[in-house]
Design goal:
Helix content: 40-55%
Order of helices and strands: HHEEEEEHHEHEEEHH
Number of domains: 2
Distance between the termini: 22 Å
Number of strands: 9
């Protein structure tokens, strides 16, 4: 799936885009039972000619009533469409909460710098962090334009001097660099800030 935000995804695949919201469906399978104010009579007059002719549906949100005129085939068509939409939403949720996305979310920027601050991680946790970072490099960074890695340390460590175009070779190189890093004691807060400032100084990085 493309690396886009959920709001953008909904614009492309949501119920409104596919005319499957409740209001949109009701307008296609019936008509609203009106109660209008008639100026000449000076009072509200209800349209009652449809009473008893059609099944009616009352919306809980605003109390409006719809007379349902659609044939069974059209109703079943909307049932199929809604079931398909539910399945699509489930797939999206499973994708959002799997693999690197459950840790890093969905990367939407075209150029990024990942700042590595392992804090007080024990050796086993250090390896888990590197596993997660390797995963995001392979699964998401491969779909963007440029990237770099910077490690917060007493002596700042950079994979490349500036953000580098993404390719199969550069991603593999970054993963190799990541796994060659030594476990070390926690970097100071100053080191973390310096790493962030270095990341932000890359002109190609938008965020």
């Amino acid at each position: 799936q493309p690396l886009i935000s959920s709001s953008k995804w909904l614009q492309l695949h949501g119920l409104k885009r596919n005319k499957l919201t409740l209001s949109q469906i009701l307008s296609q399978i019936g008509f609203q039972h009106r109660k209008d104010y008639v100026t000449t009579l000076g009072k509200l007059v209800a349209s009652r000619y449809a009473d008893g002719l059609f099944p009616q549906y009352k919306r809980a949100q605003d109390g409006s009533v719809y007379n349902l005129t659609a044939k069974k085939e059209l109703i079943l068509h909307f049932v199929d469409c809604l079931m398909g939409a539910i399945e699509l939403y489930k797939q999206r949720m499973e994708w959002l909460t799997s693999e690197s996305r459950q840790i890093f979310g969905v990367i939407q920027e075209r150029c990024i710098v990942i700042v590595l601050d392992f804090g007080t991680a024990a050796p086993a946790e250090f390896d888990l962090c590197r596993d997660a970072l390797s995963m995001v490099l392979v699964e998401q960074v491969t779909q963007i334009a440029k990237f770099n890695l910077i490690r917060a340390a007493p002596n700042l460590m950079k994979w490349q001097q500036k953000s580098t175009p993404v390719s199969e070779h550069t991603v593999k190189s970054a993963v190799t660099w990541l796994w060659k890093l030594d476990h070390m004691t926690a970097a100071s807060h100053t080191s973390s800030a310096e790493a962030l400032l270095e990341a932000m100084s890359d002109e190609a990085v938008s965020l």
